[in-house]
Amino acid sequence: MYVCDMHTHSIASGHGTSSTIADMAKAAAAKGIQVLGITDHGPATMAAGTASYFRSLAHAPRIRAGIRVCYGAEVNIVDFSGNIDLSDEVLDGLDYAIASIHHPNLKPGSITANTLAYTQAMKHSRVRIIGHPDDTRYPLDYELLADAAKEYGVVLEVNNSSLSPDGYRGDTRPNYRKMLSACRKRSLPVIMASDSHGPAHIGDFTYALRMLREMDYPEELILNGHPEKIREILGI
Hints:
- The chain contains nine helices and nine strands.
- It has helices at 21-30, 51-56, 88-91, 111-121, 142-152, 160-163, 173-185, 206-214, 227-234, and strands at residues 4-9, 35-41, 63-64, 67-76, 96-100, 127-130, 155-159, 190-193, 196-197.
């Protein structure tokens, strides 16, 4: 059973959801989730979390609705040097960060430049997951991406929202086939993400799991079923 969803968004991310962290935890508990990650968007995203909001999470309760809640941020990679939009001082108060590229904050570059943006971001000590490295507008060298993930102990994400029929990043399946092939050759763990904005899709890995099954990805390398491994990787 897949009991961990480490990439979700509350009202602090905007995007139309009005759900609080408490709402998210209650919904997750009802769905059998044991570990829930709240990773609201960093401040470079329009109407998203401020530095003050992320600082406040250091004092938020870790147990809600009987489940473990981890507090992170989905930070924006803002340039091809891998710089991100929250300071070290803020990130040190969080459990982890997911580093992602979002189109409004970084326009697409070459395969070399796009890949470098991710691999440089991996060097940050709080970045533990790379979010949706699948966007068809940002071609990547997945062999180099997987090499860097192994070197820095960072986990690559299989994003359910990207793979859904109404996903807005294009047909990401070919990119995931390349990424998962590269990861499997290196025996790298991966993590499925609902990327749920609000409670509706928490724990929904329908399309991500379909892709992993298609690639015959080893069960022991799918972290969502292994809370202890997630805690080890995140250091929580």
